[in-house]
């Protein structure tokens, strides 16, 4: 702050990499000259509880509204009108003359000593970027201004994470009356032409009786509906037209959402749990099996796909995990490669849960004996085993886990009923490098879980829909009680709604509802080329009477 010759910059590690602040390898870094104190971990500011907390808050500060409001001033200094001339002098933004672009023509120098001296100065002082702007850069819109601008558009959705206190649950007619709804998801990369921007996307459902539904979905659009538009697939209640997953499932296997994965373009359904140890691939457009992959030597118990839709990971009772490449033609998924891309070893008991991030090169698996292992995706290399803090690992299982975009691993552990320990259900948080960051005791049994940004969404067999902060595992808002066991949770790609599948086959849509004026004839507009009758369309205007959990 005081010495103009002492110039420092914050390298990217200050915003994402807490490990660089700790001497984890216990290197001998010597002693301080005056106090003789041993040099070890970086001493953090008082407001940081740990290296992870420091990085998290530091990045929050970088992405804060204050920085956004002053970002244009930084652009003016580095690339803009304050880089040179009187404005630069007034802003104390003047550097050594050799560092400026075009200040010295090295090729024109004939004296070799002078040339080397100038090259040394440039290497020492660095180079000032090119001046791109000669006028002040306009300020960025504030978050409030951006939201106001967005809500003025014809098609606009509200991010529910910005309005958590306003969440409401809307009732949808039963997808499968009395039969648990195991999967309800809106794949995020559905291909839509410019001409069909107003047409619905597909909402895929799978019920306990293995019936598949491809419903129509449109989020909040002031032209279409007060909250959202849902067009029920009429084949799910028609025994003659129903599409079902073929082949019997393994006897005694619990059928859960972990057995089903939908490709990101809503064209394929991957299913596991079959009696012949196979992974089946069904074309949702053709309604038939297109691939039958048998590589595991025991029942496949869980599936997961990565954020890009490139790889599928499977876990099995044979204690192995396999990473499969999703084959594509012209950028469209068409099936699974005949052989797995990687086979991952290390477990000694049945795999219960898996997660994969191709971008971060990590595959995570949890088994019935409480073991959680991280492998690399590209080489299939064992990286580490996560140690869960538990009084006894004798009856510990890992029914569910998830990976965040930044590599945080959330593990749900449960103790079997025969255990006498009090805290039977816990959430655990680990860093991308396997460091244990904290745990949270739960009062319910989690049935499904997903991570979106800095939030964890969980559904439980006790009927609680909970949203928690990723870094603290604490509740962001009072849980919504659905009165019946929850079997699946997912979120729409706009983060406008949470889809919840219940024990009785009903689909609950949770969102921030923002009514707008209904326009005449909106429900009779053509969708999918045919005019749907009002009885087939639910506009989400009936609020589902949930109970607040105290």
Describe this structure in words.
With 550 residues, the protein is mostly beta strands. The chain has helices spanning 51-62, 65-78, 85-90, 112-125, 143-151; strands at 168-171, 181-185, 201-207, 211-218, 229-231, 243-244, 260-262, 268-271, 279-283, 288-293, 300-305, 311-316, 321-329, 332-336, 342-344, 351-357, 362-367, 372-375, 382-386, 396-403, 409-415, 425-430, 436-442, 446-452, 455-460, 464-469, 480-481, 486-491, 497-502, 507-511, 526-527, 530-531, 537-538, 547-548. Strands 2, 3, 4, 5, 6 and 33 form a six-stranded antiparallel β-sheet that branches. A hairpin with a 2-residue loop joins strand 31 (526-527) and strand 32. It is globular, with a radius of gyration of 28 Å.
Topology (SSEs and partners):
Elements: H1 51-62, H2 65-78, H3 85-90, H4 112-125, H5 143-151, E1 168-171, E2 181-185, E3 201-207, E4 211-218, E5 229-231, E6 243-244, E7 260-262, E8 268-271, E9 279-283, E10 288-293, E11 300-305, E12 311-316, E13 321-329, E14 332-336, E15 342-344, E16 351-357, E17 362-367, E18 372-375, E19 382-386, E20 396-403, E21 409-415, E22 425-430, E23 436-442, E24 446-452, E25 455-460, E26 464-469, E27 480-481, E28 486-491, E29 497-502, E30 507-511, E31 526-527, E32 530-531, E33 537-538, E34 547-548
Antiparallel strand pairs: 1-30, 2-3, 3-4, 4-5, 4-6, 5-33, 7-8, 8-9, 9-10, 11-12, 12-13, 13-14, 13-15, 16-17, 17-18, 18-19, 20-21, 21-22, 22-23, 24-25, 25-26, 26-27, 27-34, 28-29, 29-30, 31-32
WD repeats: 344-385
Domain BEACH: 1-140
Keywords: WD repeat
């Amino acid at each position: 702050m005081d010495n103009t010759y002492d110039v420092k910059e914050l390298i990217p590690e200050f915003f994402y990499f807490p490990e660089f602040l700790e001497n984890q390898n216990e290197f001998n870094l010597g002693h301080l000259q005056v106090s003789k104190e041993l040099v070890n971990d970086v001493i953090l500011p008082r407001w940081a509880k740990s290296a992870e907390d420091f990085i998290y808050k530091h990045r929050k500060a970088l992405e804060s509204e204050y920085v956004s409001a002053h970002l244009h001033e930084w652009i003016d200094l580095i690339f803009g009108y304050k880089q040179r001339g009187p404005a630069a002098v007034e802003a104390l933004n003047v550097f050594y003359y050799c560092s400026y672009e075009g200040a010295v023509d090295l090729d024109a120098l004939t004296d070799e000593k002078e040339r080397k001296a100038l090259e040394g100065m440039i290497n020492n002082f660095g180079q000032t970027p090119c001046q791109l702007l000669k006028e002040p850069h306009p300020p960025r819109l504030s978050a409030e201004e951006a939201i106001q601008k967005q809500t003025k558009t014809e098609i606009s959705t509200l991010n529910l994470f910005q309005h958590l206190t306003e969440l409401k649950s809307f009732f949808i007619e039963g997808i499968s009356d009395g039969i648990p709804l195991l999967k309800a998801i809106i794949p995020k990369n559905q291909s839509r032409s410019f001409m069909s921007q107003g047409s619905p996307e597909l909402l895929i459902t799978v019920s306990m009786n293995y019936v598949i539904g491809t419903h129509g979905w449109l989020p909040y659009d002031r032209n279409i509906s007060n909250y959202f538009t849902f067009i029920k697939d009429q084949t799910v209640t028609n025994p003659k037209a129903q599409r079902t997953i073929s082949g019997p499932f393994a006897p005694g296997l619990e059928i859960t959402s972990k057995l089903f994965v939908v490709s990101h373009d809503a064209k394929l359904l991957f299913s596991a749990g079959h009696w012949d140890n196979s992974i089946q691939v069904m074309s949702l457009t053709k309604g038939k099996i297109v691939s039958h992959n048998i590589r595991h030597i025991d029942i496949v118990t869980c599936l997961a796909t990565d954020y890009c839709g490139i790889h599928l990971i499977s876990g099995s009772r044979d204690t192995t995990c396999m990473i499969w490449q999703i084959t594509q033609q012209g950028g469209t998924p068409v099936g699974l490669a005949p052989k797995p891309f990687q086979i991952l070893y290390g477990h000694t008991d049945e795999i219960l849960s898996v997660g994969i991030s191709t971008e971060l090169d990590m595959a995570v698996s949890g088994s019935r004996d409480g073991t959680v292992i991280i492998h690399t995706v590209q080489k299939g290399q064992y990286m580490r085993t996560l140690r869960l803090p538990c009084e006894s690992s004798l009856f510990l299982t890992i029914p569910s886990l998830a990976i965040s975009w930044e590599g945080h691993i959330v593990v749900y552990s449960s103790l079997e009923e025969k255990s006498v320990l009090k805290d039977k259900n816990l959430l655990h948080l680990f860093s991308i490098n396997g460091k244990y960051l904290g745990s949270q005791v739960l009062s319910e049994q989690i049935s499904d879980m997903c991570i979106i940004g800095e939030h964890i969404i969980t559904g439980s067999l006790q009927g609680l829909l909970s949203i928690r902060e990723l870094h603290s595992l604490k509740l962001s808002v009072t849980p919504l009680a659905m009165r019946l066991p929850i079997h699946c949770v997912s979120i729409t790609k706009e983060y406008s709604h949470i889809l919840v599948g219940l024990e009785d086959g009903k689909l609950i849509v949770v969102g921030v509802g923002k009514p707008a004026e209904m326009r005449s004839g909106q429900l009779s507009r053509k969708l999918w080329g045919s005019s749907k009758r009002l009885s087939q369309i639910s506009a989400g205007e009936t609020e589902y009477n949930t109970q607040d959990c105290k």
